[in-house]
Amino acid sequence: MISIMMPPLSLAQIRGSAARLRNILGIPEDSYVDIVKIMDNLPDTFGVVVEIVPVQEMGEKHGETYPAAKKIRLREDVYDRACQGYGRDRLTLAHELAHLILHGPKKIALARVSENTRVPAYCDSEWQANAFAGEFLAPYRFARAMTEQSIQSKYGVSAAAAHVQKSRRG
After folding, report:
1. What pLDDT band is residue 1 in, cutting at 50, 70 and 90?
2. Angle made by CA atoms 53, 58, 105, in degrees to the nearest 5
3. 3 pLDDT above the threshold of 60
């Protein structure tokens, strides 16, 4: 099995990166993130190409990111639902943004591991992107004191994301 490994990132490091991005974008720490607006402005602000791709072309993939090319591709239905405020799809947009920010081409390492071996979560690109997305949209520092329902409502995330973000310690 081939896994994509990244340099290790702790949850504290990921939280710091998410907070820095909020600061760069002028988003207050404890506020709703308009992730669709961020994606729509990436081309002008950071020179990132964002493509909205028909479902039939993307297939099962909700999104994909090419950090070296500064390119994010989003499946059209996912983007449309994010525009409508669906938490799961808003998280997908933040997840793809995380790959762009955290995973440059010089950081990727391919590793052949046995079937019984797992890439440690802190080195797994998908875990890192999920942690960043949750932290960017619903910072744990504030979410930990809220109910899951309040997290969903305030930050526009799904019930599952609210649960993970409230319980993610570290």
Report:
1. very low
2. 90
3. no
